């Protein structure tokens, strides 16, 4: 599992500390992985992260649609 994905826990305790570059790297990793491969300990954090980047449109446009699909899948499978 990528170092970037495992760092998402930081969003719960230190909101806004991920740099633009870190977010873009995380987004790139997420769009290239199956939602079933998200560690169970990170599902809530990944969902919160995706909600934030989609709400604030802080993801690159080329990633937004795929990130939205991943969020929907995670909510459906792990709710």
Notes on the structure:
The chain is an all-alpha fold. The chain has one domain (3-78). It has helices spanning 3-6, 10-13, 20-31, 43-55, 61-78. Helix 3 crosses helix 5 (61-78) and helix 4 packs antiparallel against helix 5. The mean pLDDT is 82.
Lay out the secondary structure.
Elements lengths: L2 H4 L3 H4 L6 H12 L11 H13 L5 H18 L1
Helix pairs in contact: 3-5, 4-5
Q: Let me know the average pLDDT.
A: 82
Count of separate DSSP helical elements: 5
How many domains? The number is: 1
Query: Overall 3D geometry?
Result: globular
Could you say which structural class the secondary elements and strand pairing correspond to? mainly alpha
β content, as a range?
Answer: under 5%
Q: Work out the number of β strands.
A: 0
Quick recap:
The protein is mainly alpha-helical and 79 residues long.
Give structural attributes.
79 residues, mainly alpha
């Amino acid at each position: 599992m990528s170092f970037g994905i495992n760092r998402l826990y930081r969003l719960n305790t230190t909101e806004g500390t991920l740099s633009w570059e870190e977010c873009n790297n995380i987004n790139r990793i997420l769009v290239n992985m199956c939602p079933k491969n998200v560690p169970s300990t990170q599902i809530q954090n990944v969902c919160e992260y995706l909600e934030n980047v989609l709400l604030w449109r802080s993801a690159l446009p080329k990633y937004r649609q795929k990130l939205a699909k991943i969020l929907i899948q995670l909510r459906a499978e792990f709710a």
